Amino acid sequence: MNGEVGRPISRLLADVDGARCERKGDRRVRIDATPENLPAVLELLKGRAGYLHLSAITCIDWMDDGEFELIYHLWSYEDRNLVSAHIRIPREPGVYLSVYDLFEPAGFFERDIHEMYGVFFEGSPDQEKFILTEWNGPPPMRKDFDAEGWVQGTFQWEDYRPEWLQEIEEKGGGIAIKPEQARANTRKIRGWKQ
Amino acid sequence: MNDFPLPVRAERSNPLARVFDELIDFCRARSMFMLHYCTGCGAIELPPAMTSRFDMERLGIQPMVTPRQADILLITGYVSIKTLKRVILTYEQMGSPKYVIGICSCTVNGGMYWQSYATAKKLNEYLPVDVYIAGCMPRPEAVIEGLRKLMGEIKAGRANSWERYFREYDRYLAAQQNLFGPNWQTPTDIIGEARDYQLYGPGTEGRHTELLQQHQVPLQPLRMTLHSDVEKSS
Amino acid sequence: MRPENYQAQSHPPSHEYELNFGPNHPGIEGNYALQVRLHGDTVVSAHADGGYLHRGFEKLMEGRLWIQNIALVPRICVPDPVPMEVCYSLAIEDISGLQVPERAKWLRVLQLELSRIAAHLFYFGGHAATTGMYSPSFWGVADRDLILDRFEELSGGRVYHIFNIPGGVRRDIPEGFLGRVSALLDYLEARLPEYDDLLFRNQVFVRRSKGVGVIDQQQALAWGVTGPNLRATGLGFDVRRDDPYLIYNQLDFEIPTEDSGCCWARTLVRRSELQQSIRICRQVIAALPDIGGPVRAPIPNPLAWNVPVGESYTRVESSKGELAYYVLSTGGEKPYRVHVRGPSAMHAVQVLEKMVTGGRLEDVAQIMFSLDACPPEVDR
Amino acid sequence: MSSDIDYKDAGSILAPLKNLRFFAREPVTEPLGPRPAAENYRGFHVNDWELCIGCSTCQKVCDNAAISMIHIPGLPNDPVKGVRDHRPAIDYGRCCWCGLCVDICPTGSISLTREYVHTCTEPELDSYFVLPDPNGMHKTHFPKGWSKTEQNDLLDHDRQPMAEMAPEARIGDFAEIVAGYTDQQALLEASRCVQCGMCHDACPTQMHAPDYIRAIWQGNVELAVEEIYRTNPFAHVCGRVCTHKCEDACSIGRRGTPVAIRWLKRYAMDALAPAKVKKIAAKGKSRKKSGRKIAIVGAGPAGMTAAFDLIKQGHAVTVFEALDQAGGMTRYGIPYYRLPSESLQRDIDIIVSLGVEMRYRTRVGVDVSMAELEQEYDAVVLALGLQLGRSTRIPGSDHVQVRAAVDLLRRIAAGESLAVPDKVVVIGGGNVAMDIARTLARLQKQQHGVVGMTVCALEDFAHFLADPEEVRESGEEGIEIIDARGPRHCVVNDDGTLGGLCTWKVLSIFDEQHRFAPKFDESDERIHEAGMVVESIGQMTDTGLLGDELTEALEWNRGRMKVDAFGRTSLPWLWAAGDCVNGPDVVHAVADGHRVATSINEYLTQEVAA
Amino acid sequence: MSREGHSSSYQRLAGTRSLQEILEIATEFERTARDFYTALAPRVSKRIRWLVEELADEEQAHFDLFDGLIKRMDLAEHIADRIATPASDHRFSDAIHLPDLGENPDDQAVLQYAMGREHAAMDQYGALAESVEPEELRALFRFLANEETEHKRELEARYYEIVHSGGV
Known about the structure:
Chain B is α/β, with parallel strands linked by helices.
C-alpha cells in the first residue's frame, strides 16, 4: 500500500493549481502549496484521503527572504503516511488563515506560532499568550531576536574569586580565554553565513 | 557576594537564653518541612529522595503543600522568569525562619540555559540562598547531603539568610525590578515585617523601595458573597 | 494574568468562582497551572496556563552546534528523556544519511523501552496519588529507581543519559549489563501482580477512575490525542508499529488497547504496555549478544560538522504519545530550525481544558495525571 | 488487545493478609550517605596536567560556556611542541556533565570521576569554579568515571590519504609525486581541525591556519587564500615543501595523525585561479609612493617576502639576483618532483607583478658593490641564503668526482645535463641528501635504466634528520639508505678514478644530553663502491660579497651576522634575512622577510617624520 | 706555531718519565695552544673570529687549571715518580684528519684542528691513567683525561652544529 501512496496524492492534487507533491521517503510526502490553495489542499487530504491527524504546524523564519514558512504535518491512520504541506507567507504583515475548523489541534499550534513568531492566524479561537505571559520583548523565535545578546545585556554572571584563582593572578596568570569568547557562534569568521 | 557576610547571631548575654537558642536550633534542624514546588527539572530527583529508597523522612524532612507551613524552599534547577515571580511570592509568604536551597547548576550561574531569554540566571540576586547543591541534576544522595549540610548550618546558628532578605530588601528588590519591570510588587509588606521582626537595617529601604511604593496598589479586603439565584432572575 | 497586576476585586454576585489550580499544587504534575471556573464543585470552564518551565529550547538549539544539542534535548521531557535523544539523533541521521550500526539500533530500543517502563512506573505513582493513595507512588518511584541504576551503569547519568548521539550510542554496554537488566526485568515482572493487587484491583482506585474523564474515539481523533491516551479509546495506533523506526519492525510485540476512554482505561493501557515493553527488552537481550560490530557510525569532527541541507520530520513513540522532531538544516554547523512536537503539548492544553470542563473539581488532578502530560515538554 | 485484569474481582476478604509477606522482604531503603557511583559515572572533573596541553578544545565543545581557560605561569609553554600553559577551569554553575569535553579532548587528559557530592553555603559559592587537577575536586580520591575510550572518542584520528604516484612510475621522470587533495578530500581533512590554534603559535610566520582551514571547510577557497596571504606570499611553495612546524604542534597529532595543514594550504592555492590570487595579494597595496628605495640582495623566499611587504607599503624595491631566475634555494635546491617550478613561478609572478624591479644575473660584489648599494638605496637587505656545500674533508674528498649536493642540484635545476655514473654514494642524512639522491636516481634511471644509489648517513634512524616521508619514498624508489655510517675516506683507484667510499659503523651518535658525541666501531668497515660521491652534510653562506671592509665593520654572532629581533644588523642601513641568519627553512625565511620589511618600513617612516 | 710544533710537544709528552715533567709539558701544551689561537684570531675572517677566540679562552682556562695543579702540595710526594709511557693509539673520526691550516682557514678547519688536539691529549691522559700505580696519580690523570674528553665533546657538538648546519 505504502508504495502506492504517492500517486493517489498527486492525482488528488491534480485539480489544485500550483500544488506539487514529491515523495521523500517510505512514509513521507512533501507538498509545496501556496497560501491561496493550502486550505483546499488540506481539505482534500482530510476529506478524500483520510489525513485526519494534524501532527504539527512548524513555522520557520526565513528572515533573509522576508518570509515565514509554515509546514502542516498530516498523518493518515489508514495510509500510514505523513504529508508535509509547505507554504510561504510574507514576513510582513505575517498573517495567515487558521485551519482550526479543519483540524482542532491547529488551535494550539497556531497559538504557539503566534506567540513565538508573531504570525497572526485569522479565525483561530484563542491567540492569547500561553507561555510568554511575562515576556515583553519581540516574539523570541524570530531570527532577528538575538537571545544571547539580550541575555548578556540583562543579566550579570557570577564573578568567581576562588583562592586558587587569586593565587594564580598573583603570579601573573589568570583567566586567559573566557568561555563566551570561545563559543562557536561568536567566533568571528568572515563571510560565515549559516 | 562576599560584601555581605552571613550575620552571625549576636551573643546573648544571658546564658539561659543561649541554651534556649541552641535548643531551638536543634529542634528546628530536626523538623524541616519542605515546600512541594517543582520549579525546574531537578525536581525529578525529589520523589526518589522523598520516598522509600532514599527516605528523607528519616531526617525529619517532609514535603509540605502550603508555603505558610513550610520551612524550606527548594529551588530545583532553573527558574523561568514566570516561575521566579511565583517563587518570590511564595518565599515572602513563608513564615520565618525560612531557608532556601539552590539545586543544580542553573541556580548558580544560569546553567545550561545561560543563553535562554526565558530563565533567570543567578538565584541569589533575587532571594538569599542558604545552601547550594551542585549537579545537573544532583542525585538524591547529593540532595540529602545538602539537606544535612543545611541541618548543620541551622544547628550552628548560621543559616540566617532570611534575615538578610529583610535587612537588604532594597538590593533584592532592585534585581527583581530589573527583571520584572518597575511595576513589580508583591502583596507582602516586607518593610513592615522587617520592622516587626526588628530586622530593619540600612539596606531595607532605598531607591527601589521608593519606586515600589509609588506603584504599589494598596490591598483591599476581598468581599465574596454567594447570592441565590434571585438576582439572576431579576 | 501577571501576579503584579493582580488586584483583589469584589465580583458581581455569582454562583461561579475561579480557582487557580497550580502551579504550586500537589495535584499538578510539575510546574503547571490550570485556572478553573467552578460552579459548586462542577468545572464550568478551564484555562490552561503554561510557560513556567519555558526555556526556549528551540531558540537555544538554533544557537548550538549539532553535537551540543544532544545535551539539551533530554531536558525537554524530564521523566522520559530517551525518546528525545533518539528522535533528535534519528532526524539528523535521516538528513545526513548516516547509517546507524545494527548494534546501536538494538541498544537504542533497549533504552527506549527501559525508559518507557520507568516513565510508566512514575505515572502509576502520580496517578494513584491524585486519588489519595500514596503506596503506589512509593512503589513506583522505588522500582523506577532500579531502572535508573541500570541507566547510570550504562550511560553514567541517572536521569539525563545523553547516551544517544547522531550515528549511534556513545559507548558499548558494560560487562554483564544484559544479565543485570534481565534480572531487573524478572523482578519487575514479578512485581506486576502486586501492582495489580495494590492499584488495578483496588476498588477505591477503580471506582474513582472508571468513567471519569471519558473521551471517545471520534473526539480523540479530532482533538489530536496520541499515544496511550488514544489507544485507551480503542484505536490501536502506535508509531513503533505504524511508522516504524530503528528495528521495531523486527520485534514481536502487541499494541494494547482499551475501549472505554476513561482514566481507568488510560491507566490499564499503560499497565499492559509495561508487559509489552518487558517483552521487547527480553527480545533485545536475547538478540544483542549475536549482533557484533561497532556501536557508533563515525561522525565528522563535531566542531566542524555541517549537516547537509535537508529536512526531516521524525517521529517516535514516547511513553506519552507521538513525539516528533522537525529538523531543518541549511548546511550549516547548527540547525536552522528544530521544532519539537511533544505529545503533551496537545494533551495538556486543548484536550485537558475540554476534558475537565463539565467534570468535578476533585477529578481535575486525576484527569490531568491520567493524560500523562509532561509540563516541561509543553513549555519547551 | 485488551487488558486481562478482572477489576470486578475484589478478591477474598482475606486477601489483604497476603501483604504480610512484605514483612519478610528486604527494605529498599539505602543507608544514609552517598552510594558509590557506577563505573561510567559522570561526576566532577579531573584533569591530568601532564597530558593536558591547554588547547582549549574542551572549551569549544562545551555547550554551556562552562569552561574558562586559565593561564598558569610556570607550566610548560612551548609553541613549537604544541604545549600551552593554559588549563581548563570549570564553572559548576554552568556545567551539565554531558561529558562532551571528555569525548573530544585531543589528549585524553580530562575525565569525569565518580564523585558527585558538593554542597556549599552562599559565601562559599566560589567553590563552584574549579580548576580540575589530578587530585579531584575535594582532594579526596575517587575512581575515574566517564573517561576517554575508543568508542566515545569524537575525533577523527586518521588523515585523509594523499594520492601519490607509484614508485615505479615516478622514478622514471621528474613529475610531481603528490597529486594534491580533491575538493572532497580537502573538505574532510579540513573538518578534522578543532581550531585550537597551536599551529598558528608554532608557525614561524604565524600563519592563520585555523582560519584558512575553516574557510576551506566552508568551501570558501577565496577566503582561505585571503587568510593565507595575510602572512605568507610564498604559499604555493609552502603548501608543498614547508617543514610544517604546525603539524608537529597540532593537537590532533597527540593521539592521531595531525591535520594535513600543509596539503590544505596547497589545495587552497591550487584551487583558486591565479588571477584571483593576484587580486587578493594586491589587496591593501598603498597607492601612495613613499619615494624611498630599497635594495634586496637575493631573490629567495626571504628577499621576495620582504619585497612583497615593502612594495605594498609604497616603497620602490629592487631585487638583485645572481642567477637567471628568482626563487633562491626553492628553485635551485628543491627538485622538481617536490616543487614544480611552475608553482614557484606563480608565487614569484604575483610578487613581481606588484611592481618589484628584478635584476637577474647581477652578482653583488662583482657586478655591483655593496658600497654602491649603500650609496644608492635607503636600505639594503641581505637575503643571501646558504648556497655553499660543506665538505667532510676526509682523505680523497678533493677528488673531482666528489661533489657538493647543492651545486649539483643547482645545475640540474638550471637545466644542465649531467652524466651520472651507475653507482653513486651520498653522504648525509638530511632532506638535501634525500633530494640529491632521488634526483640522481631519476637521472640514473633515465641514463642507465637502473638505480644504483646509496645514502650513508651519520645518524641512525632513531635520530634521522630527513622527514620520514622522504625516507619512505626514497626507499620505495630503490634507494638504499644506510644509517649510522661515518665516512672515513674516499677510495681513489690507482688509475685516478674514484672507487667508492669507506665508512665505519657509528655505535652511537649522541650522548645522554643529546649532544653530538659519535662512537665508532672500527671493526665494521665497509667500502661502498661508487663512481661519484656526493657530499650533503651541510651548507653555509657565501659572505664573500660583503668584502673585507664590510665584514670587519659588521658585528657577528657565532659565524652569522648579528641582527636584532627584526633582522637589522649592526649597521643602520643594512638588514639580513633568511637562511643566512636563521638556518635553512622556507617558512622561517618568509617570517624573516616580514620582520625586516616591518623594521625597514618603521625606519623609513620614522626618518621621514624626523 | 706550526703543525710540527704540535707534534714535537706531543712527542715530548709521550716520552716523559717524571710526573713533574708530565705536568709541566701538559701546561706547556695548553699554553702553546692558547698562543696559537690568540695569534690566529686576527688573521681569520671576522665571521669566524668568535670561534678562535672561544678556543683561546678555553685553552687559557686549561692552562690555569694545570698551572694550579703543579703547585698543589699533596702531589709533592709523587712528583718525582717515574711513570711508564704508554703507546697511545689513534682513533679517528672525520674530525681528526688534521688539515694544514693555510693562510685563511675557515671554521671547519679550525674546529677539526682543535678536535685533533683534544683527541690526542685525551688519549694520552687516558693511557697514563691506566698505567700509573699510585691511586692519587691515577685520579689525577683520569681527571685530566676527563677534562680533555669533555672539551673534545664540546667541540664535536659545536662541529656538528656548524658544519652539519642542522642537516639539511
